[in-house]
Amino acid sequence: MKDLYDLFRTSLAGLRVLLAATLLLGLAYPLLITGVAAVATPWSAGGSLVREDGTRTNDPDEAVGSVLLGQLVEDDALFQPRPSAAGDGYDPLSTYGSNLGPESPELLASIEAARLEVAEREGVDVAAVPPDAVTASGSGLDPHISPAYADLQVARVAAANDLAQDEVRALVDEHTQGRSLGVLGEPRVDVLLLNIAVREAAGA
C-alpha cells in the first residue's frame, strides 16, 4: 500500500512540474517575447511585410510579400527566384527540401533539366549557371538569390523592361546584402525588393 501511495505522490509531483513548465514556457514566455518584439521591432515581429512600392507595412491587406519569404515569380520580365521544393513552390504550409541525396539520379536529372532551362532563358552557356539557380534551399522558402544568379538575369530583365543594363545592374548592387555581422553567410539579393525596384524604374 505504501508503494502505491509513493507512486501516487511521485506522479502528482511530476504532473505539477509539467503544468508549471507548460504555463511558464509554453504560454507566459512566448507571450512576453511576442510583446517585447511587438514594441521593440514591430515590423519584424509582424512578418517584415512590404507594400507594392517597397515601403514597410504591418497590414497584411496592403502587403505584396515579405522580405523573409520567397514567392513564385510568373512574370518573365522580372528576376526569378531559386527553385523551391515546398509544395508547388514557396508554400509556407509545406516547407521542406527535396530530401534527395547528392547522388540521387532524380536530383541530378532535375538539376540538369533546370540548368538547361535557365541557360536557354538567359541566353548563356550551361557552365555559366550558378548552383542556386538550379537547387532549392533547405526550407524551400529562401527569398534570396546569389549576386551571381542576379547578374546572370540582368540582360533579360533590362531588355524586357526597356532599361539599360547598367541601370539594372545598379539596382542589383543596391539590393545586395553583405554577410551578416560581416562574417556569417554569403552576399545575397532579396528578389522581392529587387523586382519592386525594377518595376518602379520601368514605370510599371
From TrEMBL:
**Its membrane topology, per UniProt?**
Single-pass membrane protein
Q: Which UniProt keywords apply?
A: ATP-binding, Cell membrane, Ion transport, Membrane, Nucleotide-binding, Potassium, Potassium transport, Transmembrane, Transmembrane helix, Transport
Q: What domain of life does the native source organism fall in?
A: Bacteria
- Places the protein is found: Cell membrane
Asked if the keyword Nucleotide-binding belongs to this entry, the reply reads yes
What the record says about family reads: Belongs to the KdpC family.
Q: State how it assembles.
A: The system is composed of three essential subunits: KdpA, KdpB and KdpC.
Q: Which PANTHER family match?
A: POTASSIUM-TRANSPORTING ATPASE C CHAIN (PTHR30042), POTASSIUM-TRANSPORTING ATPASE KDPC SUBUNIT (PTHR30042:SF2)
HAMAP family assigned: KdpC
| NCBIfam families linked to this entry | kdpC
Function description: Part of the high-affinity ATP-driven potassium transport (or Kdp) system, which catalyzes the hydrolysis of ATP coupled with the electrogenic transport of potassium into the cytoplasm. This subunit acts as a catalytic chaperone that increases the ATP-binding affinity of the ATP-hydrolyzing subunit KdpB by the formation of a transient KdpB/KdpC/ATP ternary complex.
Put simply, this protein is called Potassium-transporting ATPase KdpC subunit
Name of the gene this protein is made from = kdpC
